[in-house]
Design a protein that fits this description.
138 residues, 1 helix, 4% helix
Length: 138
Amino acid sequence: MAEIRVEYASPQEESKAPPAAQPDAPRAETQIPAAPAAPSSTVAETPVASAQQPSGGAAGEGRIRLEFDSESWVEIRDADGKTLMSQLNPAGSRRVIVGRRPLSLVIGNGAAVRLIYNDSPIDLKPYIQIEVARLTLK
């Protein structure tokens, strides 16, 4: 899902000086989804890491989409061992990660997470031991 970034300046910042005169001034950022969500849905899709967005599936890259029904910790590493994602994710959120395969995942509270890999759903149940799913996607 494409995102549009909008930057807002407070009225005080605008009256002080033009933006070019304050290059290091902090700015508030708001992310607005390009397409409106369903009225009852508060789910936001946030790209976390992206080596390069594949166009039709770039060779050696995999695209992971995670949807969280409950709070869950996720750690994802790429083929080089680089950490693409290592964070606690709130209930109702979504994350999209693109990285070089194979991708190693550790998902806490795995039963509450839906995983879609390259547009194919993956059942996490076989990979869950004591609420943590561990798997490698090739």
